[in-house]
Amino acid sequence: MIESIAGPLRLSLQISIFATFFAFTAGVLLAWIFAFHKNKLTSFLSIIVTIPLILPPTVLGYYLLVTLGRNSVIGQTYEALFGGPIVFTWQAAVAAAAIAALPLLIRPMQAAFESIDVDYLGAARLDGASSFQLLRFIILPIAWRGVLAGVVLGFARAMGEFGATLMVAGNIPGRTQTLSIAIYDAVQADRIAEANFMAAVLTAFTVAILYLVHRRFAAKV
Question: Which CATH superfamily is domain 2-220 in?
Answer without folding.
Answer: MetI-like (1.10.3720.10)
